[in-house]
């Protein structure tokens, strides 16, 4: 099935400078609203519940896993919130919304889990806050416990889809974080140069020598790359 795309992509180039994670400590499941409440905001998966369930393939065993974050669906003779399909056409209930909940892993990421109606199987879906979308099978460990992974902006606490009245997108948060760190670096560095090193003039800027030489270093690097990474000879022809 198709994933809904966020309306605001944000400043992806900031990923080169800042790694931002939405680590949380708790995630209280709310079955009626298909969400969980964290200390950073609500993670609402309802917009991801569409007409067709998400699917993830496990090629090694020729299996496919289907999952809907908010409602049970029917496939073959099984009605459940998570279904495992083995070839040839063997269907297994691996999780129902009547037996659902949430927890948080050691990385501060929420996990939505469901237990099969007979209690024999469990599916765990790790919800990872990213700007892209994917739903993948990870592993079965231990037996009859299936770990899958959902990457989506809707896994970010407080994300509402970028419809104009929602919170900031992940990319926007990264932009704000980067420029906040940049301003802090310049201000604190300048204060340190003046108060501790008694610098004056241009030397008051933190690491002035490095930043002033950076354009030349970039130019040399570009020329070196264009020349095929070959050092120029220091010998003159006779």
Labels describing this entry:
238 residues; alpha+beta; Cation-dependent Mannose-6-phosphate Receptor, Chain A; 2 domains; 8-stranded mixed beta sheet; 3-stranded antiparallel beta sheet; 19% helix; 32% strand
Please give a structural write-up.
InterPro entries: Man-6-P_rcpt, Man6P_isomerase_rcpt-bd_dom_sf. The N terminus is likely disordered. This protein folds into two domains: 129 residues, Cation-dependent Mannose-6-phosphate Receptor, Chain A (Distorted Sandwich), CATH 2.70.130; 46 residues. The relative contact order is 0.14. The longest helix has 26 residues. By secondary structure, the protein is an alpha+beta fold. The strands form three sheets. The protein has an eight-stranded mixed beta sheet, with no helix packed on it. Strands 1-2-3 form a three-stranded antiparallel beta sheet, with no helix packed on it. The chain has a two-stranded antiparallel ribbon with strand order 6-7. The protein is elongated and about 80 Å long. It contains two helices and 13 strands; from the N terminus they run βββββββββββββαα.
């Amino acid at each position: 099935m198709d994933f809904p795309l966020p309306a605001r992509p944000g400043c992806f180039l900031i990923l080169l400078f800042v790694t931002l994670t939405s680590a949380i400590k708790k995630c209280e499941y709310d079955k009626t609203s298909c969400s969980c409440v964290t200390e950073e905001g609500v993670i609402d998966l309802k917009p991801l519940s569409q007409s067709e369930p998400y699917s993830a393939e496990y090629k090694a065993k020729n299996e496919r896993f289907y999952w809907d974050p908010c409602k049970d669906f029917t496939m073959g003779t099984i009605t459940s919130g998570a279904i495992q399909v083995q070839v040839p056409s063997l269907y297994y209930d691996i999780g129902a919304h009547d037996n659902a909940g949430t927890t948080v892993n050691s990385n501060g990421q929420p996990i939505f889990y469901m237990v099969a109606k007979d209690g024999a199987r469990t599916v765990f879906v790790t919800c990872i806050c990213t700007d892209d979308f994917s739903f993948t099978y990870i592993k079965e460990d231990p037996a009859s416990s299936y770990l899958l992974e959902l990457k989506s902006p809707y896994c970010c606490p407080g994300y509402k889809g970028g419809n104009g009245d929602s919170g900031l997108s992940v990319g926007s948060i990264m932009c704000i974080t980067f420029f906040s760190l940049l301003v802090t670096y310049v201000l604190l560095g300048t204060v340190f140069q003046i108060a501790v090193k008694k610098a004056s003039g241009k030397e008051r800027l933190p690491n002035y020598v490095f930043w002033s030489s950076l354009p030349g270093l970039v130019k040399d690097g570009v020329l070196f790359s264009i020349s095929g990474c070959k050092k120029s000879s220091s010998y003159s022809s006779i």
